[in-house]
Write a structure and sequence with these properties.
The protein is 61% helix and 0% strand. It is mainly α. Among the domains are: 64 residues, Orthogonal Bundle (Helicase, Ruva Protein, domain 3); 27 residues. The longest helix has 26 residues. The radius of gyration is 43 Å and the shape is rod-shaped. The N and C termini lie far apart (150 Å).
Length: 172
């Protein structure tokens, strides 16, 4: 038994399908790219002015304008883009707080238990100042000397001389 060759008549359909898929992939890639604003008008000083108010979320105690990590460089580029789009400094700060959390502000939020971080240093300074003031005041204040009469002084000297003689007589 001989097999009959199968004629594929769907080749034009496959060609159209492949062409459509290619066209769709190129147009979706083009649509996915958003035009970036021109950041050439934004100077490094403008970027650093905003970055001075933000802290690196990866390093501890390092401002964003002084950090040399690659992530911080990307954050500075984002600041330049936001400035080119016309965003204010406060809008940029809010954007970074939403992205990285409140630690980018470099200070604890003034809510809830974090109030202690604001109140305790002030209370410590006031308490320490009062302690030092009271101590200095006690040192400077003159202490009244007890009034000694000449008769008491002579009696004390005689008593001392008598005790001294007794002690020395033991060793003879």
């Amino acid at each position: 038994m001989k097999e009959k060759p199968v004629k594929i008549r769907s080749i034009p359909f496959i060609r159209v399908l492949i062409f459509s898929l290619l066209l769709l992939s190129f147009t979706s890639a083009a649509l996915a790219q958003t035009p970036t604003p021109d950041t050439s008008a934004i100077t490094a000083d403008q970027v650093n002015e905003v970055a001075r108010g933000l802290w690196c979320p990866l390093c501890s105690g390092v401002r964003l304008d002084a950090c040399e990590l690659k992530a911080c460089e990307q954050m500075k580029e984002m600041i330049a883009i936001k400035l080119a789009e016309g965003a204010s400094e406060e809008e940029i700060r809010v954007y970074f707080a939403e992205q990285y959390g409140p630690q980018v502000y470099g200070q604890p939020p003034t809510e809830g238990f974090n109030w202690l971080a604001w109140i305790l240093p002030v209370l410590g300074l006031v308490g320490g100042g009062l302690f030092v003031w009271y101590g200095i005041r006690r040192m400077i204040r003159p202490h009244p000397a007890p009034a000694a009469t000449p008769a008491q002084t002579a009696a004390q000297a005689d008593d001392y001389s008598r005790k001294l003689e007794q002690e020395l007589s033991r060793y003879d």
